[in-house]
Amino acid sequence: MRSVHFVAVAILLTLASSLINAYDPSPLQDYCVAIKESDVFLNGKFCKDPKLVKAEDFFFSGLNVPRNTENNVGLNVTLLNVDQIPGLNTLGISLARIDYAPNGGLNPPHTHPRGTEILLVMEGELFVGFVSSNPDNRFISKVLKAGDVFVFPIGLIHFQVNIAETSAVAIVGLSSQNPGVITVANAVFGSNPPVKPEVLSKAFQLDENVVITLQKLFEGKS
């Protein structure tokens, strides 16, 4: 009887392990180039007929071109996920170029709910960091220069800021074809509809009028 229980537990643990690690759809063929289906909601994408697949399905050009960083935070993110490169479908990866304005260009605190991020600094000097989960909330940070690499674990709040007097550029890899992004300030203060000010006032230990001001500031930016 014990052996039967042991086998059952072993099977359950194996299944649980498989489910925990399966963030993106696993490939069951060489490739599954994504096609759009407007009337169907699916956790993933439908596949193009393999006979119709072409090189352009796996291709993007222009990531070397500097982006405009003239905005409130001095940042421009060029994300290449499955929507830009259909051939990424089921492969579990995506890529981004990040441009930072001189003297404080900021990628604000945010999380990727479906992907770990690995960042390579190409130009400039960045101060980066992430915060571990409760209860420790440990802040882990480092100054990075060109050629340096840093990893931000999946789901943890992290940021980057350019501390150089010149522009900075980083290339980022993410462990999902669609990692998602939740910018903390935008999500909390710019949600639609807004979170009740009394809730945020108590959560952040802020005067309710300050919360209302922040909500007006971030309105429409989530």
Based on secondary structure, the structural category is alpha+beta
* Separate helix tally: 4
Number of strands: 12
The low-confidence runs, each spanning 5 or more residues with pLDDT under 50, are 6-20
Helix content: 10-25%
Portion of residues in beta strands equals 25-35%
**Straight-line N-to-C gap:** 56 Å
Provide keyphrases for this structure.
secreted; single chain; alpha+beta; globular; 222 residues; metal-binding; manganese; five-stranded antiparallel β-sheet; Germin
Q: What this model shows, in words?
A:
The chain is of the alpha+beta class and 222 residues long. 20% of the residues lie in helices and 28% in strands. It has four helices and twelve strands; from the N terminus they run αββββββββββββααα. It has helices spanning 2-21, 184-189, 197-204, 208-218, and strands spanning 34-35, 46-47, 75-80, 94-100, 106-111, 117-123, 125-131, 139-145, 149-152, 157-162, 168-174, 182-183. The strands form three sheets. It has a five-stranded antiparallel sheet, with no helix packed on it. The chain has a five-stranded antiparallel sheet with strand order 8-7-10-5-12. The chain has a two-stranded antiparallel ribbon with strand order 1-2. β7 (125-131) and β8 form a beta hairpin. α3 (197-204) packs across α4. The radius of gyration is 21 Å and the shape is globular. The termini are far apart.
